[in-house]
Amino acid sequence: MRESIANRYDFIYLFDVKDGNPNGDPDAGNLPRIDAETGEGLVTDVSLKRKVRNYVALLKEYEAPYDIFVREGGVLNDLIKAAHEDERVEQAEKKHDKTKAARKVMCERYYDIRTFGAVLSTGENAGQVRGPVQLTFARSVHPVVALEHSITRMAATDANEKTGENRTMGRKFTVPYGLYMAHGYISAAFAKQTGFDEEDLAILKEALVNMFDHDRSAARGEMTPRAVVMFRHNSYLGNAPASRLFEMFQVRALNETPRSFQDFEVHFPETAQLPDGVSLEIYTPETGWTTPTT
User: 0.90 cut: is pTM over it?
Assistant: First the structure.
């Protein structure tokens, strides 16, 4: 088993979208997800994890120990079955021991299992893995509006269509501008179970900074990471409640209809405010990763 991280982390992830759909809702015709009561935009944790997975796949090209378990076109049961064919699993005598050994093999091979966890009992049983890294839904810090745009296609799909007057019509949905905030948690206790180590953490931080640059599409518009605020506890279980740390980071809209990041006032935590045993690392596009000092 890899030597896992020994410290707890909590982090804030701030990103924005301009003229795009950051996370469509398939139950609502792919409209941007919006809290019906507050009008605030939403992006699911699953959407953010997908972008992390895609970035790691580009970075490491599906090579162990950074392979990706949940991938497009993948057959999960085949991958679980392959783990049971590992020599270490076949040598185990009891069924429980085989399950435990298969789970260890999969944690060692797949980055996303080590990081986010997975259910590995859909075919050959490798149990379940509770990942050390968990994300909340991202919620916009101000109400957003979903716009609907009509689009047409000029080209025909076949000769019969070309002779007619019909042009295919479609719909496209966008948010003019939204600034979203998600909270993240990294448990050293669960990292010990999966082998999530310091190198895995460094890759996660790299993915949060770069993943939107490799996920461009006409639907998503301009998506940009605006800040990552990483709180590092100097202990295994942590030195302060995450909620207390998150409250130190404040974002306020300067007008009622913000249309850029410059329309917000951002207050980063100050080192002097931090509880004992907690340190701070901040990323912004302008400064990169920095460690504030008193």
Answer: yes
